[in-house]
Amino acid sequence: MRTEQTYVQLDARLSSAVAPTPVLDPQWIAFNDELAVQLQLPLTQRATPEGLQIFAGNSTPDWAQPHALAYAGHQFANYVPQLGDGRAVLLTEVVDKNGQRYDIQLKGSGRTPYSRGGDGRSPLGPVLREYLVSEAMHHLNVPTTRALAAVASGEMVKRESIEPGAILTRVAKSHLRVGTAQYVLALQERKLLKAFADYVIQRHYPDCATAEQPYLALLTQVRDKQAELVAQWMSLGFIHGVMNTDNMTLSGETIDYGPCAFMEAYDPQKVFSSIDRRGRYMYQNQPPIGMWNIARFAETLLPLLELPEQQAIEHASDIVHGFEQVYQQHYHARMSAKLGLAPEHPQAEQLLEDYLQLMHHHQVDFTLGFRYLSDADDQRIGALFQQSPTWQKWYQQWQTAHEDLNAAKQHMAQVNPIYIPRNHLVQEVITAATNEGDLTPFNTLHRVLKNPFTEHEEYARYSKPAVAEQQITRTFCGT
Q1: How does 162-173 read in b/e, with b if 16+ C-beta sit within 10 Å?
Q2: At 95, phi and psi to the nearest 5?
Q3: How many CB atoms sit inside 10 A of residue 392's CB?
Q4: What is the per-residue burial (b if ≥16 Cβ within 10 Å, else e) of 354-378?
Protein backbone atom coordinates (compact mmCIF):
# COMPACT_ATOMS: atom_id res chain seq x y z
CA MET A 1 0.00 0.00 0.00
CA ARG A 2 1.63 3.22 -1.17
CA THR A 3 0.71 6.15 1.05
CA GLU A 4 1.88 9.76 1.34
CA GLN A 5 0.72 13.08 2.72
CA THR A 6 1.54 15.58 -0.01
CA TYR A 7 -1.17 18.19 0.60
CA VAL A 8 -0.68 18.71 4.33
CA GLN A 9 3.04 19.25 3.66
CA LEU A 10 2.24 22.18 1.36
CA ASP A 11 1.83 24.65 4.23
CA ALA A 12 1.10 24.25 7.93
CA ARG A 13 -1.75 26.77 7.76
CA LEU A 14 -3.84 24.54 5.48
CA SER A 15 -4.49 21.79 8.03
CA SER A 16 -4.17 20.80 11.66
CA ALA A 17 -2.78 17.53 12.97
CA VAL A 18 -5.48 15.90 15.11
CA ALA A 19 -6.07 12.30 16.17
CA PRO A 20 -9.52 10.71 15.91
CA THR A 21 -11.32 10.41 19.24
CA PRO A 22 -11.68 6.73 20.23
CA VAL A 23 -15.18 5.26 20.57
CA LEU A 24 -16.60 2.91 23.16
CA ASP A 25 -17.75 -0.21 21.35
CA PRO A 26 -17.22 -0.21 17.56
CA GLN A 27 -19.17 -2.67 15.42
CA TRP A 28 -19.08 -3.22 11.67
CA ILE A 29 -21.93 -1.84 9.58
CA ALA A 30 -20.40 -2.28 6.13
CA PHE A 31 -17.06 -2.64 4.39
CA ASN A 32 -16.35 -2.09 0.68
CA ASP A 33 -14.08 -4.97 -0.35
CA GLU A 34 -14.04 -3.92 -4.01
CA LEU A 35 -12.71 -0.48 -3.12
CA ALA A 36 -10.24 -1.91 -0.60
CA VAL A 37 -8.75 -4.10 -3.35
CA GLN A 38 -8.43 -1.07 -5.63
CA LEU A 39 -6.65 0.87 -2.88
CA GLN A 40 -4.44 -2.13 -2.11
CA LEU A 41 -5.35 -1.97 1.57
CA PRO A 42 -3.56 -4.73 3.54
CA LEU A 43 -5.70 -7.83 4.02
CA THR A 44 -5.30 -7.62 7.79
CA GLN A 45 -6.80 -4.10 7.76
CA ARG A 46 -9.97 -4.78 5.84
CA ALA A 47 -13.11 -6.32 7.41
CA THR A 48 -11.07 -7.64 10.32
CA PRO A 49 -10.75 -6.83 14.03
CA GLU A 50 -7.69 -4.70 13.22
CA GLY A 51 -9.55 -2.91 10.42
CA LEU A 52 -12.49 -2.26 12.75
CA GLN A 53 -10.26 -0.41 15.20
CA ILE A 54 -8.70 1.68 12.41
CA PHE A 55 -12.00 2.71 10.80
CA ALA A 56 -13.55 3.44 14.19
CA GLY A 57 -10.71 5.86 14.91
CA ASN A 58 -9.51 3.77 17.86
CA SER A 59 -6.08 3.04 16.41
CA THR A 60 -3.87 4.83 13.94
CA PRO A 61 -1.97 2.59 11.51
CA ASP A 62 1.62 3.37 10.61
CA TRP A 63 0.53 4.65 7.18
CA ALA A 64 -1.77 7.36 8.62
CA GLN A 65 -0.99 10.92 9.70
CA PRO A 66 -4.42 12.29 10.66
CA HIS A 67 -5.10 15.93 9.78
CA ALA A 68 -8.22 18.08 9.61
CA LEU A 69 -8.24 20.34 6.56
CA ALA A 70 -8.97 24.06 6.60
CA TYR A 71 -11.23 25.74 4.06
CA ALA A 72 -13.62 28.67 3.75
CA GLY A 73 -16.82 28.93 1.72
CA HIS A 74 -19.93 30.73 0.63
CA GLN A 75 -22.84 29.13 2.48
CA PHE A 76 -26.10 30.12 0.79
CA ALA A 77 -24.15 33.04 -0.76
CA ASN A 78 -22.82 34.24 2.61
CA TYR A 79 -19.04 34.10 2.89
CA VAL A 80 -17.60 32.36 5.95
CA PRO A 81 -13.80 32.89 6.18
CA GLN A 82 -13.06 29.70 8.11
CA LEU A 83 -14.98 26.44 8.04
CA GLY A 84 -12.81 23.33 7.77
CA ASP A 85 -13.24 19.70 8.74
CA GLY A 86 -15.27 20.00 11.92
CA ARG A 87 -15.93 16.28 12.26
CA ALA A 88 -13.51 14.65 9.87
CA VAL A 89 -9.84 13.77 9.62
CA LEU A 90 -7.79 12.92 6.55
CA LEU A 91 -5.90 9.73 7.40
CA THR A 92 -3.65 9.66 4.36
CA GLU A 93 -3.34 9.81 0.60
CA VAL A 94 -2.98 6.47 -1.14
CA VAL A 95 -1.93 5.67 -4.70
CA ASP A 96 -4.17 2.87 -5.96
CA LYS A 97 -3.30 -0.05 -8.22
CA ASN A 98 -3.97 2.13 -11.30
CA GLY A 99 -1.66 4.93 -10.16
CA GLN A 100 -4.55 7.24 -9.15
CA ARG A 101 -4.14 9.19 -5.90
CA TYR A 102 -7.00 9.16 -3.38
CA ASP A 103 -7.70 10.61 0.06
CA ILE A 104 -8.91 8.33 2.85
CA GLN A 105 -10.91 10.29 5.42
CA LEU A 106 -12.85 9.45 8.57
CA LYS A 107 -16.14 11.34 9.08
CA GLY A 108 -17.72 11.53 12.52
CA SER A 109 -14.40 10.83 14.21
CA GLY A 110 -14.55 13.54 16.90
CA ARG A 111 -13.70 17.18 17.50
CA THR A 112 -11.12 19.09 15.50
CA PRO A 113 -9.86 22.69 15.68
CA TYR A 114 -12.61 23.54 13.15
CA SER A 115 -15.56 22.05 15.05
CA ARG A 116 -16.92 25.47 16.09
CA GLY A 117 -18.53 24.07 19.24
CA GLY A 118 -19.78 20.86 17.63
CA ASP A 119 -19.12 17.39 19.00
CA GLY A 120 -17.41 16.16 15.83
CA ARG A 121 -19.62 13.07 15.74
CA SER A 122 -22.18 11.76 13.29
CA PRO A 123 -25.48 10.04 13.96
CA LEU A 124 -26.02 6.66 12.33
CA GLY A 125 -28.60 7.95 9.83
CA PRO A 126 -26.35 10.33 7.85
CA VAL A 127 -23.64 7.66 7.68
CA LEU A 128 -26.06 5.12 6.20
CA ARG A 129 -27.41 7.74 3.79
CA GLU A 130 -23.98 8.78 2.52
CA TYR A 131 -22.81 5.18 2.19
CA LEU A 132 -25.86 4.20 0.13
CA VAL A 133 -26.17 7.33 -2.00
CA SER A 134 -22.47 7.78 -2.77
CA GLU A 135 -22.14 4.13 -3.78
CA ALA A 136 -25.35 4.39 -5.82
CA MET A 137 -23.91 7.40 -7.65
CA HIS A 138 -20.76 5.41 -8.41
CA HIS A 139 -22.81 2.62 -9.97
CA LEU A 140 -24.83 5.23 -11.89
CA ASN A 141 -21.49 6.31 -13.41
CA VAL A 142 -21.48 9.74 -11.75
CA PRO A 143 -18.12 11.07 -10.42
CA THR A 144 -18.39 10.86 -6.66
CA THR A 145 -16.65 10.31 -3.38
CA ARG A 146 -17.01 6.71 -2.26
CA ALA A 147 -17.63 4.82 0.96
CA LEU A 148 -14.93 2.42 2.13
CA ALA A 149 -16.34 1.55 5.54
CA ALA A 150 -19.11 2.31 8.03
CA VAL A 151 -18.76 1.54 11.72
CA ALA A 152 -21.22 1.92 14.58
CA SER A 153 -19.55 3.70 17.49
CA GLY A 154 -21.43 2.08 20.35
CA GLU A 155 -22.07 5.58 21.67
CA MET A 156 -25.05 7.90 21.46
CA VAL A 157 -25.10 11.29 19.72
CA LYS A 158 -27.35 14.13 20.81
CA ARG A 159 -29.13 16.04 18.06
CA GLU A 160 -32.86 16.83 18.21
CA SER A 161 -33.07 13.44 19.87
CA ILE A 162 -30.58 10.91 21.20
CA GLU A 163 -29.36 8.72 18.33
CA PRO A 164 -26.77 5.98 17.85
CA GLY A 165 -23.45 7.24 16.51
CA ALA A 166 -21.41 6.00 13.54
CA ILE A 167 -18.28 6.76 11.54
CA LEU A 168 -17.92 6.75 7.75
CA THR A 169 -14.68 6.24 5.87
CA ARG A 170 -14.82 8.36 2.72
CA VAL A 171 -12.54 8.06 -0.30
CA ALA A 172 -12.07 10.94 -2.77
CA LYS A 173 -9.66 11.93 -5.52
CA SER A 174 -9.05 14.82 -3.16
CA HIS A 175 -10.96 16.92 -0.64
CA LEU A 176 -9.86 20.18 -2.27
CA ARG A 177 -12.84 22.45 -2.79
CA VAL A 178 -13.63 25.85 -4.24
CA GLY A 179 -13.78 26.86 -0.57
CA THR A 180 -10.21 25.62 -0.09
CA ALA A 181 -9.01 28.02 -2.78
CA GLN A 182 -11.01 30.80 -1.11
CA TYR A 183 -9.30 30.06 2.20
CA VAL A 184 -5.86 30.19 0.60
CA LEU A 185 -6.69 33.48 -1.15
CA ALA A 186 -7.73 35.01 2.17
CA LEU A 187 -4.28 34.32 3.60
CA GLN A 188 -3.07 37.05 1.20
CA GLU A 189 0.20 35.40 0.31
CA ARG A 190 0.75 35.11 -3.43
CA LYS A 191 3.54 32.56 -3.05
CA LEU A 192 1.24 30.20 -1.16
CA LEU A 193 -1.63 30.81 -3.59
CA LYS A 194 0.65 29.87 -6.48
CA ALA A 195 1.88 26.77 -4.65
CA PHE A 196 -1.72 25.72 -4.01
CA ALA A 197 -2.82 26.25 -7.63
CA ASP A 198 0.27 24.41 -8.86
CA TYR A 199 -0.57 21.55 -6.50
CA VAL A 200 -4.12 21.31 -7.90
CA ILE A 201 -2.68 21.26 -11.42
CA GLN A 202 -0.12 18.60 -10.56
CA ARG A 203 -2.67 16.39 -8.80
CA HIS A 204 -5.71 16.74 -11.04
CA TYR A 205 -4.91 18.55 -14.31
CA PRO A 206 -1.21 18.01 -15.15
CA ASP A 207 -1.63 19.03 -18.80
CA CYS A 208 -2.37 22.60 -17.60
CA ALA A 209 1.25 22.97 -16.47
CA THR A 210 2.49 23.38 -20.04
CA ALA A 211 -0.30 25.74 -21.15
CA GLU A 212 0.54 29.31 -22.13
CA GLN A 213 -1.67 30.51 -19.25
CA PRO A 214 -1.71 27.54 -16.82
CA TYR A 215 -4.14 29.12 -14.34
CA LEU A 216 -6.66 30.05 -17.02
CA ALA A 217 -6.30 26.48 -18.29
CA LEU A 218 -6.96 25.24 -14.74
CA LEU A 219 -10.06 27.43 -14.48
CA THR A 220 -11.30 26.03 -17.80
CA GLN A 221 -10.79 22.42 -16.76
CA VAL A 222 -12.46 22.83 -13.38
CA ARG A 223 -15.34 24.62 -15.11
CA ASP A 224 -15.74 21.80 -17.60
CA LYS A 225 -15.67 19.12 -14.90
CA GLN A 226 -18.31 20.91 -12.84
CA ALA A 227 -20.52 21.62 -15.86
CA GLU A 228 -20.47 17.96 -16.85
CA LEU A 229 -21.13 16.85 -13.27
CA VAL A 230 -24.18 19.10 -12.87
CA ALA A 231 -25.50 17.84 -16.23
CA GLN A 232 -25.22 14.30 -14.89
CA TRP A 233 -27.13 15.27 -11.74
CA MET A 234 -29.86 16.88 -13.79
CA SER A 235 -30.20 13.85 -16.07
CA LEU A 236 -30.89 11.67 -13.03
CA GLY A 237 -33.23 14.03 -11.18
CA PHE A 238 -30.63 14.38 -8.43
CA ILE A 239 -30.83 17.42 -6.17
CA HIS A 240 -27.64 18.05 -4.19
CA GLY A 241 -29.37 20.35 -1.75
CA VAL A 242 -26.40 22.35 -0.47
CA MET A 243 -24.19 23.59 -3.34
CA ASN A 244 -22.10 25.87 -1.14
CA THR A 245 -18.60 26.56 -2.43
CA ASP A 246 -17.17 24.37 0.34
CA ASN A 247 -19.17 21.45 -1.10
CA MET A 248 -17.88 21.81 -4.67
CA THR A 249 -14.71 19.82 -5.36
CA LEU A 250 -11.96 20.97 -7.71
CA SER A 251 -11.68 17.38 -8.98
CA GLY A 252 -15.28 17.38 -10.25
CA GLU A 253 -16.58 14.73 -7.84
CA THR A 254 -19.91 14.86 -6.02
CA ILE A 255 -19.23 15.42 -2.33
CA ASP A 256 -21.37 15.66 0.83
CA TYR A 257 -24.65 13.78 0.77
CA GLY A 258 -26.49 15.57 3.54
CA PRO A 259 -29.87 16.96 2.41
CA CYS A 260 -29.63 15.45 -1.07
CA ALA A 261 -32.50 13.60 -2.75
CA PHE A 262 -33.61 12.08 -6.03
CA MET A 263 -36.72 13.78 -7.34
CA GLU A 264 -39.75 11.56 -7.91
CA ALA A 265 -42.67 13.54 -9.44
CA TYR A 266 -40.98 15.85 -11.95
CA ASP A 267 -40.94 19.46 -10.78
CA PRO A 268 -38.22 21.89 -11.90
CA GLN A 269 -38.69 23.91 -8.70
CA LYS A 270 -38.33 20.95 -6.35
CA VAL A 271 -36.49 21.62 -3.07
CA PHE A 272 -35.81 19.03 -0.37
CA SER A 273 -33.20 20.56 1.92
CA SER A 274 -34.68 21.77 5.21
CA ILE A 275 -32.09 24.55 5.40
CA ASP A 276 -32.72 25.84 1.86
CA ARG A 277 -35.62 28.04 2.88
CA ARG A 278 -35.54 30.26 -0.22
CA GLY A 279 -34.98 27.51 -2.78
CA ARG A 280 -31.50 28.68 -3.78
CA TYR A 281 -30.47 25.11 -4.61
CA MET A 282 -33.70 23.85 -6.15
CA TYR A 283 -33.41 21.40 -9.06
CA GLN A 284 -33.56 23.96 -11.87
CA ASN A 285 -31.10 26.31 -10.12
CA GLN A 286 -28.25 23.80 -10.02
CA PRO A 287 -26.70 24.85 -13.37
CA PRO A 288 -26.59 28.60 -12.64
CA ILE A 289 -25.31 27.92 -9.12
CA GLY A 290 -22.61 25.75 -10.63
CA MET A 291 -21.54 28.70 -12.75
CA TRP A 292 -21.72 31.04 -9.72
CA ASN A 293 -19.37 28.72 -7.84
CA ILE A 294 -16.92 28.69 -10.76
CA ALA A 295 -16.95 32.51 -10.67
CA ARG A 296 -15.85 32.31 -7.03
CA PHE A 297 -13.02 29.97 -8.03
CA ALA A 298 -12.01 32.38 -10.81
CA GLU A 299 -11.65 35.15 -8.21
CA THR A 300 -9.05 33.08 -6.35
CA LEU A 301 -6.90 32.70 -9.48
CA LEU A 302 -6.88 36.34 -10.64
CA PRO A 303 -3.76 37.31 -8.63
CA LEU A 304 -1.79 34.59 -10.44
CA LEU A 305 -2.56 35.69 -13.98
CA GLU A 306 0.39 37.36 -15.71
CA LEU A 307 -1.88 39.88 -17.40
CA PRO A 308 -3.01 43.46 -16.83
CA GLU A 309 -5.83 43.46 -14.27
CA GLN A 310 -8.66 44.34 -16.66
CA GLN A 311 -7.47 41.84 -19.23
CA ALA A 312 -7.18 39.13 -16.57
CA ILE A 313 -10.76 39.80 -15.44
CA GLU A 314 -12.05 39.67 -19.00
CA HIS A 315 -10.31 36.37 -19.76
CA ALA A 316 -11.53 34.79 -16.54
CA SER A 317 -15.06 36.10 -17.09
CA ASP A 318 -15.18 34.62 -20.57
CA ILE A 319 -14.25 31.23 -19.15
CA VAL A 320 -16.84 31.49 -16.37
CA HIS A 321 -19.60 32.46 -18.79
CA GLY A 322 -18.64 29.53 -20.98
CA PHE A 323 -20.04 27.27 -18.25
CA GLU A 324 -23.55 27.48 -19.69
CA GLN A 325 -22.52 26.33 -23.15
CA VAL A 326 -20.47 23.40 -21.80
CA TYR A 327 -23.31 22.44 -19.47
CA GLN A 328 -25.90 22.59 -22.25
CA GLN A 329 -23.80 20.36 -24.50
CA HIS A 330 -23.52 17.69 -21.82
CA TYR A 331 -27.13 18.05 -20.70
CA HIS A 332 -28.51 17.87 -24.23
CA ALA A 333 -26.39 14.81 -25.04
CA ARG A 334 -27.48 12.98 -21.90
CA MET A 335 -31.15 13.87 -22.14
CA SER A 336 -31.26 12.97 -25.85
CA ALA A 337 -29.73 9.59 -25.00
CA LYS A 338 -32.45 9.09 -22.38
CA LEU A 339 -34.94 9.37 -25.27
CA GLY A 340 -32.85 7.06 -27.45
CA LEU A 341 -31.88 9.86 -29.81
CA ALA A 342 -28.56 11.25 -30.99
CA PRO A 343 -28.03 14.83 -29.75
CA GLU A 344 -27.87 16.08 -33.36
CA HIS A 345 -31.28 14.57 -34.17
CA PRO A 346 -33.43 17.46 -35.48
CA GLN A 347 -36.36 16.56 -33.20
CA ALA A 348 -34.39 15.75 -30.04
CA GLU A 349 -34.63 19.15 -28.35
CA GLN A 350 -38.34 19.69 -29.02
CA LEU A 351 -39.29 16.14 -28.07
CA LEU A 352 -37.44 16.52 -24.78
CA GLU A 353 -39.00 19.89 -23.98
CA ASP A 354 -42.48 18.57 -24.71
CA TYR A 355 -41.87 15.40 -22.72
CA LEU A 356 -40.72 17.27 -19.63
CA GLN A 357 -43.81 19.46 -19.82
CA LEU A 358 -45.97 16.34 -20.03
CA MET A 359 -44.17 14.81 -17.06
CA HIS A 360 -44.65 17.96 -15.04
CA HIS A 361 -48.34 18.23 -15.91
CA HIS A 362 -49.05 14.59 -15.03
CA GLN A 363 -46.67 14.54 -12.03
CA VAL A 364 -44.82 11.59 -13.52
CA ASP A 365 -41.92 10.02 -11.65
CA PHE A 366 -38.70 11.29 -13.25
CA THR A 367 -36.85 7.97 -13.15
CA LEU A 368 -39.71 5.75 -14.33
CA GLY A 369 -40.84 8.32 -16.89
CA PHE A 370 -37.66 7.64 -18.82
CA ARG A 371 -37.07 4.01 -17.87
CA TYR A 372 -40.52 2.78 -18.93
CA LEU A 373 -40.00 4.26 -22.41
CA SER A 374 -37.55 1.41 -22.99
CA ASP A 375 -40.21 -1.29 -22.34
CA ALA A 376 -41.10 -3.66 -25.16
CA ASP A 377 -44.73 -2.45 -25.02
CA ASP A 378 -46.32 0.79 -23.90
CA GLN A 379 -48.45 -0.43 -21.01
CA ARG A 380 -46.38 0.85 -18.08
CA ILE A 381 -45.37 4.11 -19.69
CA GLY A 382 -48.88 4.84 -20.95
CA ALA A 383 -50.33 4.27 -17.50
CA LEU A 384 -48.07 6.96 -16.04
CA PHE A 385 -49.77 9.49 -18.32
CA GLN A 386 -53.28 8.01 -17.98
CA GLN A 387 -53.12 7.34 -21.74
CA SER A 388 -54.08 11.00 -22.27
CA PRO A 389 -54.47 12.28 -25.85
CA THR A 390 -51.52 14.69 -25.46
CA TRP A 391 -49.39 11.79 -24.26
CA GLN A 392 -50.46 9.56 -27.14
CA LYS A 393 -49.66 12.29 -29.66
CA TRP A 394 -46.18 12.80 -28.18
CA TYR A 395 -45.57 9.06 -28.01
CA GLN A 396 -46.37 8.64 -31.71
CA GLN A 397 -44.02 11.49 -32.62
CA TRP A 398 -41.29 9.97 -30.48
CA GLN A 399 -41.71 6.53 -32.05
CA THR A 400 -41.55 7.87 -35.60
CA ALA A 401 -38.38 9.81 -34.77
CA HIS A 402 -36.49 6.49 -34.56
CA GLU A 403 -35.29 4.46 -37.51
CA ASP A 404 -34.83 1.41 -35.28
CA LEU A 405 -36.99 1.74 -32.18
CA ASN A 406 -36.03 -1.63 -30.68
CA ALA A 407 -32.31 -0.82 -30.87
CA ALA A 408 -32.98 2.60 -29.33
CA LYS A 409 -34.88 1.01 -26.44
CA GLN A 410 -32.02 -1.37 -25.73
CA HIS A 411 -29.64 1.57 -25.50
CA MET A 412 -32.07 3.54 -23.33
CA ALA A 413 -32.20 0.69 -20.79
CA GLN A 414 -28.45 1.13 -20.33
CA VAL A 415 -28.67 4.86 -19.51
CA ASN A 416 -32.03 5.11 -17.72
CA PRO A 417 -31.84 3.42 -14.30
CA ILE A 418 -34.69 1.44 -12.82
CA TYR A 419 -33.35 1.70 -9.25
CA ILE A 420 -32.26 4.86 -7.42
CA PRO A 421 -31.90 5.52 -3.66
CA ARG A 422 -35.39 6.88 -3.16
CA ASN A 423 -35.98 8.93 -0.03
CA HIS A 424 -38.50 6.60 1.55
CA LEU A 425 -36.31 3.55 0.97
CA VAL A 426 -33.30 5.25 2.56
CA GLN A 427 -35.49 6.29 5.48
CA GLU A 428 -36.69 2.70 5.91
CA VAL A 429 -33.06 1.66 6.21
CA ILE A 430 -32.28 4.38 8.74
CA THR A 431 -35.36 3.65 10.86
CA ALA A 432 -34.68 -0.09 11.00
CA ALA A 433 -31.02 0.40 11.90
CA THR A 434 -31.62 3.20 14.41
CA ASN A 435 -34.66 1.78 16.21
CA GLU A 436 -34.04 -1.95 15.97
CA GLY A 437 -30.37 -2.37 15.12
CA ASP A 438 -31.51 -4.22 12.00
CA LEU A 439 -29.14 -3.86 9.02
CA THR A 440 -31.06 -6.24 6.74
CA PRO A 441 -32.89 -3.39 4.90
CA PHE A 442 -29.54 -1.58 4.46
CA ASN A 443 -27.84 -4.64 3.01
CA THR A 444 -30.73 -5.38 0.66
CA LEU A 445 -31.00 -1.82 -0.66
CA HIS A 446 -27.24 -1.65 -1.07
CA ARG A 447 -27.33 -4.84 -3.14
CA VAL A 448 -30.16 -3.50 -5.34
CA LEU A 449 -28.37 -0.19 -5.98
CA LYS A 450 -25.23 -1.95 -7.21
CA ASN A 451 -27.07 -2.85 -10.43
CA PRO A 452 -29.29 0.15 -11.16
CA PHE A 453 -29.87 -0.61 -14.85
CA THR A 454 -30.89 -4.28 -14.57
CA GLU A 455 -34.51 -4.92 -13.61
CA HIS A 456 -35.33 -7.87 -11.36
CA GLU A 457 -38.89 -8.90 -10.58
CA GLU A 458 -38.06 -9.71 -6.95
CA TYR A 459 -36.90 -6.09 -6.46
CA ALA A 460 -40.07 -4.50 -7.85
CA ARG A 461 -40.82 -2.50 -4.70
CA TYR A 462 -37.44 -0.79 -4.93
CA SER A 463 -38.36 0.78 -8.27
CA LYS A 464 -41.64 2.31 -7.11
CA PRO A 465 -42.13 5.92 -6.00
CA ALA A 466 -43.35 6.60 -2.47
CA VAL A 467 -47.07 6.37 -1.87
CA ALA A 468 -48.71 9.26 -0.03
CA GLU A 469 -47.93 8.06 3.50
CA GLN A 470 -44.29 7.30 2.60
CA GLN A 471 -43.43 10.63 1.02
CA ILE A 472 -40.56 12.59 2.48
CA THR A 473 -40.60 16.26 1.55
CA ARG A 474 -37.67 17.47 3.67
CA THR A 475 -34.15 16.17 4.07
CA PHE A 476 -31.61 17.19 6.68
CA CYS A 477 -27.84 17.65 6.75
CA GLY A 478 -27.40 15.58 9.92
CA THR A 479 -24.37 17.48 11.23
Answers
A1: ebbbbbbbbbbb
A2: -100, 120
A3: 13
A4: bbbebbeebebbbbbbbbbbbeeeb
> Residue 474's pLDDT is what?
79
Q: Considering the candidates 246, 256, 276, 365, report the single residue annotated as catalytic.
A: 246
In whole angstroms, what is the distance from residue 193 CA to residue 199 CA?
10
HSE-CB for 391 with a 13 A CA cutoff: 20
Q: 309-360: per-residue pLDDT in tens? A: 999 999 999 999 999 999 999 999 999 999 999 999 999 999 999 999 999 9
DSSP output for 39-96: HT--GGGSSSHHHHHHHTTS---TT---EEEP--EEETTEEES----SSEEEEEEEE-
- Please give the Cα distance from 256 to 249 (Å, whole number): 10
- Side-chain-facing half-sphere of 402: CA atoms under 13 Å: 20
Give the H/E segment covering residue 262.
strand 261-262
Q: Are the C-beta atoms of residues 130 and 479 closer than 8 Å to each other?
A: no
Measured between alpha carbons, how far is residue 116 from residues 20, 83, 113 in Å? 17, 8, 8
- Separation in Å, CA 90 to CA 3, 99, 127: 12, 20, 17
Closest CA to 172 of 123, 106, 81: 106
Main-chain phi, psi angles of 149, to 5 degrees: -155, 155
Cα separation of 308 and 305, whole Å?
Answer: 8
Helix (H, G, I), strand (E, B) or coil at 186: helix
Among 328, 299, 341, 338, residue whose Cα is nearest residue 316 = 299
For 428, the enclosing helix (H) or strand (E) is helix 423-436
| Pairing mode, strands 162-172 and 146-158 | antiparallel
Active site residue 85: no
Burial of 210 (0-12, 13-18, 19+ CB in 10 A): exposed
Question: What are the tens digits of pLDDT across the range 84-112?
Answer: 999 999 999 999 999 999 999 999 999 99
User: 147, 168 in Cβ contact below 8 A?
Assistant: yes
Q: Phi and psi of 254, rounded to 5°?
A: -70, 130
- Rounded Cα–Cα distance for residues 11 and 29 (Å): 36
CB-CB contact of 230 with 327 (8 Å) = yes
DSSP character string of 285-345: GHHHHHHHHHHHHHHHHGGG--S-HHHHHHHHHHHHHTHHHHHHHHHHHHHHHHTT--TT-
Nearest to 90 by CA among 217, 175, 187: 175
